[in-house]
Amino acid sequence: MSTTSRTNGSLYVHTQSNVATIEFGHPASNSFPSELLDRLAKAFDELSVNNSVHVIILKSEGDRAFCAGASFDELVSISNLEEGKKFFSGFANVINSMRTCSKPIIGRIQGKTVGGGVGLASSCNYCLATEAASIKLSELTVGIGPFVIEPAVSRKIGMAAFETLAWDASQWKNAYWAKEKGLYSKVFQTIDELDKEVQLLAEKLGSYNPNALAQMKKVTWQGTDHWGELLLERAEISGELVLSDFTKKALNKFKK
After folding, report:
1. How confident is the model at residue 255 (pLDDT cuts 50, 70, 90)?
2. 120 lies in a domain?
3. How far is the C-alpha of 178 from the C-alpha of 129, rounded, in Å?
4. Domain membership of residue 28 as a residue range
5. How far is it, in rounded angstroms, from Cα 94 to Cα 73?
6. Segments of the chain assigned E as strands
7. Which of 109, 112, 147, 199 shows the greatest Cβ crowding within 10 Å of its Cβ?
8. What is the structure's pLDDT at 3?
9. pLDDT tens-digit series, residues 175-217
10. What's CA 120's distance to the chain center, in Å?
11. Number of H helices, E strands in the chain
């Protein structure tokens, strides 16, 4: 898989020795337009049935933000409920593809992570991060809410920690807070250290019995079969809110 035009971002999949690396990128702090979310979901679906792949690394381009969430430009251009539901279904589809993927997913989180990016990290089976990997759920500040990603985030860090992030929507929490809550398993001072540990863990997992990995993956996501419907219902909530006068004003103010 290769890059697409930079306005729609880029997505590369590279496989070596049973380890597949998915790397996404976008000039706007590695945020996701809808097309890029679609491609990411398809990448997980394809790797799920690829017998030569035993483990997946999810990473983003550069040494700054890991992911700024959904595309702000697309968000402000939503003009009807159908567009709104489709837009917010993007992260729903990715989370469900990560959930049903038969391979364990390692998250390599090198920098700040906002909104849907926190949903991606929460949907990984094991996240490694740097000290710069602060997190924030800023959705309430622009008149919507982290509805689609809530099940994934709450499953990973618990409802109390989710509420801390969601209600205090302008507040960053640092990487050590995220580690304490269980989002990150380890935190490193530098990206070099992070990359070494990610590669080491991926190679170890890649050497294990793939059937055991697949069964382990099923066990860790037990009780989430209803998410196929649930996350799309949540996308509709956000799709309705984004059309409200309150949210349109908040988005325009944020844009300025």
Report:
1. confident
2. yes
3. 10
4. 6-191
5. 20
6. 10-16, 19-25, 55-60, 105-109, 113-114, 126-130, 135-136, 186-188
7. 109
8. 40
9. 999 999 999 999 999 999 999 999 999 999 999 999 999 999 9
10. 2
11. 11, 8
